Amino acid sequence: RRGAFENAGSGTLFLDEVGELPLPAQAKLLRVLEDRKVTRLGGDRAFAISARVVAATNRDLEKDVEAARFRQDLFYRLNVHTLRVPSLRERLADVPVLVEHLLRAIASHLRIRPKTIAPEAVALLSAYDWRKNNVRELRNCLERMMIATDAAIITVMVVLSAGINYWQ
Predict the structure, then answer these.
(1) What is the pLDDT of residues 60-85, one digit of tens each?
(2) Are 89 and 130 in contact (CB under 8 A)?
(3) Helix (H) or strand (E) holding 15
């Protein structure tokens, strides 16, 4: 069956957490990126690929290269253009916009009516030091809140009752 590179066609293939790939998988990815060809598992024919590859990681790949946990040749193949996105705790001013976006996305995913959030609740979320999983943690918190209340507005009490009670 068709794999990710074939399905991407001439579009973009997003490789999330590329820094977590084991070394044997890194070698295979490097081969595909260099040859621009992929062979299906169990197949005997190589297919040309034209997909652009965008890779993301939360790891410091330069340190992983030095420690021999990430292939240097793959690092240089992927490191054409680097976009560093600061962690959420370094850009707390983005929390209100992210909250609004994520509430709409979660509502759509859960097939429920979108909810609004009280300004005090947004302020509480903006004051939190998002160290665990950044935006993923924020999304999970908001999803818990969406599920935890039948009210149309997420209040401070909903935030606290959803397990977000570890502010200092």
Answers:
(1) 999 999 999 999 999 999 999 999 88
(2) yes
(3) strand 12-15
